[in-house]
Write a structure and sequence with these properties.
- By secondary structure, this protein is α/β, with parallel strands linked by helices.
- The protein has two domains: 197 residues, P-loop containing nucleotide triphosphate hydrolases (Rossmann fold); 146 residues, CobW-like, C-terminal domain (Hypothetical Protein Yjia, Chain: A,domain 2, 2-Layer Sandwich), CATH 3.30.1220.
- The protein is 30% helix and 20% strand.
- It contains 15 helices and 14 strands.
- Strands 1, 9, 10, 11, 12, 13 and 14 form a seven-stranded mixed sheet that branches. A seven-stranded parallel sheet has the order 4-3-5-2-6-7-8, with helices on both faces.
- Strand 7, helix 9 and strand 8 form a beta-alpha-beta unit.
- Helix 7 packs across helix 8.
- The two termini are 33 Å apart.
């Protein structure tokens, strides 16, 4: 599926009174404790009006029998496979069914939705479905992605299983479960490891059988279109991890037969542009970068100073899924530079570094034939 280039170019304006229903995507590898967390959450009186969409792997559903605290009509069970594979399309259908039931007063209320994925699901394809369905965008809004990490089995899942790594990097918040099965030193080591993989995530360590609604639902703190939105501290402090430009003699010094980067090594770094940048150029580069880096580009987010705009634009991408760009009402500080933070692995950092020349070219230096074909279709060529 080609990338959705149109999502970049006309930022949506933040809505002061967003009445859409917030959704949380709850992920975590097999056995991480998602159902246990749901049972604890649904006991809380403030979680009244929470609908749960449960996905299962296999022909017979089990998790809906394990969630004891929700009324039957508040659970839509999706059976037959991961949401990111065979159940595509049915997720939107289940959410719309919930919305319709609420409108018809067939369920008491619908204030929020938790989507529990199978432990084998990557977050990227599920997010793509949630963000690209027009009927959902009018009624629901993604609040956050929350991933559970099993402390007792972290040595295997975090270090060796690709799906578990993608779940961790794609999360806004990480919950370390089963802390009663390991000692404090193991928890501290796991927390440090998770911060190297996803330094932008909130990390919580719940006690067995406990859960806080605020770990999942943020009242808009993570949503750029919300008046409660706060910019990530990782983006605000991007100078500390600024990417150094490639040296002029790097090609002469490189060893073509040397070892490349380890594909499992995850890097976090920032790109800072001191001057406003044309939208066609920056978004064209990001589009090209996503296509070129592929699976090496795990995530990026940032705040952008676009030429001709007084307000900043916020962008966010998880794997190859672009969240709609949002225009904030004002800059959060006097620093009006473009700041983008990337989380990559393998050759991702080198791919970013070696494509920066595109951003440094002026329109007069760029031949129209060299423009990316996709960008040329979506945007007029710049004036020389």
């Amino acid at each position: 599926m080609p990338p959705d280039r149109g999502a970049f170019f006309e930022p949506e304006i933040a809505l002061p009174n967003d009445t859409r229903i917030p959704m949380v995507l709850l992920t975590g590898f097999l056995g991480a404790g998602k159902t246990t967390l749901l049972n604890a959450l649904l006991r809380r009186p403030e979680m009244s009006g929470t609908a749960v969409v449960i996905n299962e792997y296999g022909a017979v559903g089990l998790d809906h029998h394990l969630v004891q605290q929700a009324e039957p009509d508040e659970i839509e069970l999706i059976e037959g496979g991961c949401m990111c594979c065979t159940t595509r399309g049915r997720l939107a259908e289940s959410l719309m069914t919930l919305f319709t039931k609420a409108q018809r007063k067939q369920i008491p209320s619908l204030r929020r939705v938790i989507i529990e994925t199978t432990g084998l699901a990557e977050p990227g394809p599920i997010l793509n479905q949630l963000l690209r369905a027009p009927q959902l965008a009018e009624r629901f809004v993604l609040d956050s992605v929350v991933t559970l990490v099993d402390a007792a089995n972290a040595a295997t899942t975090v270090e060796e299983i690709d799906i578990a790594q993608k779940q961790i990097v794609g999360a806004d918040a990480l919950l370390i479960t089963k802390r009663d099965l390991v000692d404090d030193a193991a928890i501290d080591a796991l927390r440090a490891k998770l911060l190297t993989m996803n330094p932008d995530a909130d990390i919580h360590v719940p006690e067995k059988g406990t859960a806080e609604p605020g770990w999942l639902f943020t009242d808009g703190r993570r949503r750029p279109e919300s008046a409660a939105f706060t910019l990530s501290s990782l983006v605000l402090n991007a100078d500390a991890i600024r990417l150094a430009p490639v040296a002029a003699d790097a090609a002469d010094q490189a060893d073509p037969w040397g070892d490349g980067p380890n594909w499992d090594d995850i890097q976090t770094f920032s790109l800072i542009l001191d001057e406003p940048v044309p939208a066609w150029k920056l978004f064209g580069w990001l589009d090209f970068l996503r296509s070129l880096a592929g699976a090496d580009l795990l995530r990026f987010k940032g705040i952008i100073n676009l030429e001709g705009r007084d307000q900043p634009t916020v962008v966010h991408s998880v794997q190859n899924v672009l969240h709609p760009s949002e225009e904030l009402a004002a800059w959060p500080s006097d620093d009006h530079r473009t700041r983008l933070v990337f989380i990559t692995r393998g050759w991702g950092q080198e791919t970013v570094r070696n494509t920066l020349a595109y951003l440094r070219d002026t329109p007069a230096d760029i031949d129209a034939a060299q423009l990316d074909d996709a960008i040329a279709r979506d945007q007029p060529a710049p004036n020389a």
